[in-house]
Structure formats: C-alpha cells, structure tokens
C-alpha cells in the first residue's frame, strides 16, 4: 500500500500488524491516545492527527476493535480499508468458524461499598451525593456490573469530584478506586 508506514489492529489488548512494522513509539502513542479517549468518556470513533507530512489515524471499526494507520498526508483511508477487507476475504478458510462467546468480566458487588467509602473520604459531605447521583445517572445496578461499565463509572465519578476538590485530588481518588481492581 502506497504512502503507508504501518497499519495495525488493536483488539482485546493485542496489536496485530497488517502492513509495515510496529515501532515502540507508535505503540506508546496509540495507547496514550486510546487511554485519553477512554478517560474522557467521549464517544469518539474516528481520530486523525496530522503533523508535518504525516497522518496518524485511529478508527474504532467494531466495539473495542481499532484500526490504526500511520502514513503520509493525503492517503486514501477508504481504499486502505477496502484492501484490508479483500485480504481478509482471501485469508478466510472455507470452513465456518465457531464463534467464541465473549464473556465480559463482572466486578463484585462489594466493590461499590469500598468505592463509596473512598468517595466519602475524599469528598467529605459531598461524597455520598456524588456517589449516588453518578450511580443513578449511569443507571448502574451494583449486581452484574461489567468491568467496562465500572471503569466508566469511576471516570464519571472522578469528573464530578474534580469540580469539588480539583484535578489532583480527584485523580488521587480515581487511582485509589482503580487499585481496588488489582
């Protein structure tokens, strides 16, 4: 593919190179950008960064599956996506693949009690209100909450806390909560 340095997919924590070679700098850049997008909570599905004569392109092509392209400005992204699809068709075996069932990890219900205590510790009188409002706004049931939904809850909780205690104290609270997952 002309004008392309590297094309890769990121799915389930794995990087799969489709074209070129993935350098550590690109991995770090992509993971940093993805983390920032995740942390923001914004529903961003396409992200293009232009610099000098280069393009760094990220697109969520399926849920939690990203296409990453690094190349020259002006490359035809749609053409590249078509070529990738053609390669997939050629590489598909004639047999039908058995679909794997993806089971999302569920956080224990008790973790919410610990999060509540941490929130109250950091936000004092506002802690209970912020915690309950965030649960209500996100329509979270403490039973059967997926890890992904829990992380979104923690991000939103951190954003609310930031308005009360500032960014550094809020970040400290978020780190303490996320340490519960370890």
What's this entry about, in short?
The chain has about 180 residues and is of the alpha+beta class. It is about 50% helix and about 20% strand.
SSE topology:
Layout: E1 4-11, E2 14-20, H1 24-40, E3 46-51, E4 54-62, E5 65-72, H2 77-91, H3 111-123, H4 127-138, H5 147-165, H6 167-178
Antiparallel strand pairs: 1-2, 1-5, 3-4, 4-5
Can you tell me about this structure?
Strand 1 and strand 2 form a beta hairpin. This protein folds into two domains: 88 residues, 2-Layer Sandwich (Beta-Lactamase); 71 residues. With 182 residues, it is α+β, with helices and mostly antiparallel strands. The protein starts with a strand and ends with a helix.
Distance between the termini: 42 Å
| Major sheet: arrangement of strands | 2-1-5-4-3
Whole-number total of structural domains:
2
SS class? alpha+beta
Radius of gyration: 20 Å
Tally of extended strands? 5
- The CATH homologous superfamily name of the largest domain equals Dynein light chain 2a, cytoplasmic
Count of separate DSSP helical elements: 6
CATH class of the largest domain, named: Alpha Beta
> Architecture of the largest domain, CATH level 2?
2-Layer Sandwich
Task: State the main characteristics.
single chain; 182 residues; alpha+beta; Beta-Lactamase; 2 domains; five-stranded antiparallel β-sheet; 6 helices; elongated
């Amino acid at each position: 593919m002309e004008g392309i340095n590297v094309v890769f997919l990121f799915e389930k924590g794995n990087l799969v190179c489709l074209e070129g070679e993935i350098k550590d700098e690109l991995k770090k850049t992509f993971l940093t950008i993805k983390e920032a997008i995740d942390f923001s909570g914004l529903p961003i599905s396409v992200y293009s960064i232009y610099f000098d004569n280069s393009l760094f392109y990220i697109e969520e092509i399926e849920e939690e599956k990203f296409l990453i392209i690094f190349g020259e400005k002006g490359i035809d992204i749609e053409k590249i996506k078509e070529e990738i699809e053609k390669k997939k068709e050629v590489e598909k075996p004639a047999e039908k693949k058995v679909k794997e069932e993806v089971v999302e990890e569920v956080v224990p219900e008790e973790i919410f009690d610990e999060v509540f205590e941490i929130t109250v510790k950091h936000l004092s009188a506002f802690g209970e209100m912020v915690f309950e409002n965030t649960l209500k706004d996100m329509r979270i049931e403490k039973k059967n909450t997926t890890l992904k939904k829990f992380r979104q809850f923690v991000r939103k909780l951190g954003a609310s806390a930031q308005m009360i205690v500032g960014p550094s104290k809020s970040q400290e609270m978020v780190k303490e909560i996320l340490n519960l997952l370890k």
